[in-house]
Prior knowledge:
This protein has about 575 residues and is an alpha+beta fold. The protein has helices at about 25-65, 75-85, 95-115, 195-350, 350-380, 390-410, 430-460, 465-475, 505-510, 535-545; strands at about 125-135, 150, 165-170, 180-190, 390, 415-420, 425-430, 480-490, 490-500, 550-555, 560-570. Helix 7 (about 430-460) packs antiparallel against helix 8 (about 465-475).
Amino acid sequence: MSTGAIPPYPESADAPRFSPWRYAGRLAPLAVLWAVLVGLLAWLLATRANWNEESDRADVREWVDNTRVFRKTLAELVKEYVDLLHSPDLPNRADRVHDKRAEIRQHLEAMVEPTRMYTAQLPLFPNVYALEVEFAGVSDADGAPAEPLTWTSPKPRPGGSAKAQLRTLEVEPPLDRPGARATVRCVYQLHSFNRMQQQQDEFRHWQTIAAGVIVPTTLLAVFLVVRAVRREQARELEKWRVAAEAEHRERELLAAQVERELIERNLLEVRVRQQELERASEELGRKLLEQELNAAQHKTRAAEAEREALEMKSQLYASIGIMAGSYAHNIKNLLVRPNDLIARCMEAADGPQHEMLDEVKSTLGTVTERLQQILRTVRRDPANAEVTQVDAFSLFRDTQRTWAEMGRDKWKLTVAADVPPGSALVTGDLSHLQQAVENLVFNARDATFEMRNYLRDEAKRETDPAARRQKLMAAAGWKGEVHLTARRDGDHAVLEVRDNGIGMTDEVRRNCLKTHFSTKRDNALYEGYSAGMGLGLSFVAMVLEHHGGDLEIESAPLRGTTFRVRFPLVAE
């Protein structure tokens, strides 16, 4: 907390730091004007130094562009040569191209011959060391890039310090053809060494004059600017001292009042702290009560969730029991009459007929026993399963043998199995696992029925009679398939039930394991049975939960479904 003490007298404090950047805006126009003058002078010197060289390059360029040896310039010959290369239909094209190349070579030699004859007599004549014509985007008759035309002087190029006197000039004559380009390159030496030395001496002379003008004037300008800045600094310092003395006098007058205010402020702060402590204590008590209330609510919610889960499981088992009891009652009523008729027929029959009737009676007994086994399975809680070691591979083989004939004759589909030899032991209840696998098979069967009905409905909606007939024939010939696949994957047994049925959408795949959730239509099942009650897959999920199994579902609309179950193997 601030004590409100009066700062010391300004004489004992440091003076404000002076910043020359405050005057940068005032000095900016003068600096810009000075930079423009210096840059203009430098540009004039550079132009003066390079004027002779630019003049020489202009002379050589005019010599390359306008020299006419055989009534044509080099640019015109090059353009004619490129036109010949791009005219494949001309008669005697190859000979004409060869003659044109020879003509260009003679033109190059004729251009440089006078310069070679008078190189030592006329200093203004250039010493040409190379003259060549290169092509880009131009091809000969074979499709290869056009070769350059080159003339090289037999006189060797200068070395050492004289090598710096060599100049290269490149000229691109117009060809009037998109993508085609020709470059005339000339390597030459024009002025003698004495002339170049004279140019360098003249350049250094003008440099000395410029330095003699710029340096003194720059120093004078800097001196004037520094003196003006120092005067302004002294003036501002004096103003600061006067203002500091006035402020010190005002602070001395207010010192007593500040002390009284500090005492009153301290008393108020003590009271405020007491009130804050009281509020903090109340807030802490309120938070403790809220935490206790939240804990009680969490316990209530957990208990409610557990109760709802138990109720859902009870409802599931009740529904399964009701369904199983209804099925068992109906099947038993249907089996009473066939058993009575078979018993009468066996009394009157003898020989082979008696044996066949006895076999039929035995089969009906097996059906009744199987019905009682299924009824005991669905009525027993998976949590109280009879745990034994079950061969998962053998379970798949038995399931395929049990339903293959029924699938072929009644369901009009193929039930196939791909199970490796040997065994794969898992821990579980045989009846529960058997019922779970059969539920997956029945679900795959119903998916194939829905797929067949979908194909028929699509064919009936076709407006073209011929196309409708083809689609109806394709729908009638469509064959449902259910594949049972088993394999080992490390320390797990993997069981897959795959079909080529109607498939599932993402929403159906997320909800298919929920109790009483079903999408089967009345015509999805065979023999006129109504749609499912949504208990089959939920029963499978509960069985797998109590057996430590994992279920994966892969499906897409009209692309079939794969149910993949993973069980941990029994340690050998």
